[in-house]
Write a structure and sequence with these properties.
heterodimer, A: 238 residues, mainly alpha, 10 helices, B: 279 residues, alpha/beta, Rossmann fold, six-stranded mixed beta sheet, three-stranded antiparallel beta sheet, 12 strands, 36% helix, ABC_transporter-like_CS (chain B), translocase (chain B), ABC_transporter-like_ATP-bd (chain B)
Chain lengths: 238, 279
């Protein structure tokens, strides 16, 4: 049975954090959702709709979850450092856990900061944080798929941006386009369910968010299966 | 002597291209084994098979007595430096080495030691992106030396280094070899191969066309002649036989001889002779 070394994972995490602090592209992905939070905070004062404050969180899912994760994996492939890691005692799973930790930590930090900026009062809700963590895991898995499929950093933009808009930001834009077919498609997406669940939690209805949990969990399982398939295919192609 | 690498009738086919065509060889413990061949001859494919990155299409491969597998235990025993090895450009030399020191569980003192070995101690705080190609190559070499592997695969290790830095690296490799590390080396540099390798295999079109010690290869493929330079500036080519010996004796007796050199072929000459192409 394959064993996992937490010590090696810690070494990779330490390197990822050092590298991220020097990577302006990664830092930008943290700054943009916080900037949007400032903008939405003012809009919320005008419209009085607290749900609008969730939008910077959706942006964080897409930007720091998916895009950052895909960027750090694609860069490792492009610069041939992923091969160097794979030829070290670190196993594939240790490398992936170590790398995903950075995106996970940054997404969580960004969400926390956007909530601090907007003053969103969900901080104390355990259910809110649980469903948020589930969404972060989903978006990081999607980022891993994009990173593994991309051969370079530039390719992550081609592949990652449409996915980020579709998966992360479509619940924001779909109502503006107001087309029935688009609304129908968006209603199946995990972010749409995240928004609905958050709305219910805001109203104090904690017992009827089950279907939303189920939807996000199914998306996460699907993403993990695709991720494993892409990872195996990548190895065979090598 | 114990066999570290045992390759038998290995072939590797990528779609319709046959990269390796029935290669067999053994590498003994403590040997520096040179694998020489032009681009596309199958050197990198062989290293990929031996380092468990790909599987052979047919044939058998055993490293340390077992089929290579991408496990932590196997990776701890060997080190790899290929022409595609990468470094973290935003991090310093020291941070790059500390990452791998952590993965291989070696001490910070060892990091300092390899920095001295590759002549980079004073530059350790520099970010990789500010280094020259040669310095980056030295960092890569430092990285594979870190854990003092039992078996080291080096693919063109000194290709972008100047002679003085090459000397540092050759010294470090010799010391590592003296300490017991078996080295599998591919290179285009015939002098490097001659200076470092105990045995050499010439690879061409996915096949081994010659395998022996550099000395034996020269003897086998030499033209058995001696060049004599006379006092008057003339050069004479003398055969290594009874008649040639008499001729040399005559030049000596007459006091005409200025210099005498045996005409051993270089490894490059032998390679061209065997394959009809240069490296």
């Amino acid at each position: 049975m394959m064993s996992i070394s937490w010590r090696r994972i810690q070494v990779i995490i330490r390197k990822e954090l050092k590298d991220a602090l020097r990577n302006y592209q990664v830092l930008m992905m943290v700054v943009v959702p916080i900037g949007m939070a400032l903008l939405y905070q003012n809009m919320q004062s005008l419209e009085g709709n607290q749900l609008i404050l969730i939008f910077p969180i959706l942006m964080s899912f897409g930007m720091t979850g998916t895009i950052v994760q895909s960027m750090i994996i694609a860069e490792e492939k492009e610069k041939h450092t992923l091969r160097a890691l794979m030829l070290s005692p670190a196993t594939a799973i240790e490398v992936m856990i170590g790398k995903s930790f950075l995106s996970f930590f940054l997404t969580l930090l960004t969400i926390f900061l956007t909530m601090l900026v907007t003053g969103l009062s969900m901080g104390i809700s355990l259910l809110f944080w649980c469903i948020t963590l589930l969404c972060i895991l989903f978006f990081i898995t999607v980022g891993t798929i994009v990173g593994l499929m991309s051969k370079s950093l530039t390719e992550t933009a081609y592949l990652g941006m449409p996915i980020m808009f579709l998966m992360g930001l479509s619940p924001i834009f779909a109502p503006l386009i107001n087309k029935a077919w688009l609304t129908k498609i968006v209603s199946f997406l995990p972010t749409a369910h995240y928004l609905q669940a958050t709305e219910l939690l805001m109203k104090g209805k904690t017992f009827i968010v089950g279907s939303h949990w189920l939807n996000i969990t199914i998306w996460l399982i699907l993403a993990v299966i695709i991720c494993l398939f892409v990872f195996k295919r990548n190895r065979i192609e090598d | 002597m114990k066999t570290v690498i045992n390759v038998k009738d290995v072939t590797k086919t990528y779609q319709e291209v046959q990269a390796i065509r029935g290669v067999s060889f053994e590498v003994k413990k403590g040997e520096i084994f040179g694998f020489l061949g032009p681009s596309g001859s199958g050197k990198t494919t062989t290293i990929k098979i031996l380092t468990a990155q790909i599987r052979p299409t047919t044939g058998s491969v055993a490293v340390f007595g077992k089929e290579p597998a991408p496990s932590s235990e196997y990776m701890k025993r060997m080190g790899v430096l290929t022409d595609h090895s990468g470094l973290y450009e935003r991090l310093s030399i020291e941070d790059n080495l500390l990452l791998f020191a952590g993965l291989y569980e070696v001490s910070r003192t060892r990091v300092e030691q390899v920095l001295i070995d590759v002549n980079l101690k004073d530059e350790k705080k520099k970010a990789i992106k500010h280094l020259s190609k040669g310095m980056k190559q030295r960092v890569l070499i430092a990285r594979v030396l870190l854990h003092q592997p039992e078996l080291l695969f080096l693919d063109e290790p000194t290709s972008s280094l100047d002679p003085s830095n090459q000397k540092y690296i050759h010294q470090a490799l010799k010391e590592l070899n003296r300490a017991g590390t078996t080295i599998f080396l591919t290179t285009h540099d015939m002098l490097e191969a001659e200076g470092l390798c105990d045995r050499i295999a010439f690879l061409n079109g996915g096949k081994i066309v010659a395998l022996d010690t550099p000395e034996n290869l020269r003897i086998q493929h030499g033209n058995q002649t001696i060049t004599v330079r006379l006092m008057n500036g003339d050069k004479k080519l003398v055969a290594c036989d009874e008649q040639g010996a008499a001729q040399i004796y005559h030049y000596l007796k007459q006091g005409q001889m200025q210099t005498i050199h045996s005409n051993e072929p270089t490894l490059g000459d032998i390679f061209i002779k065997l394959t009809g192409r240069g490296l």
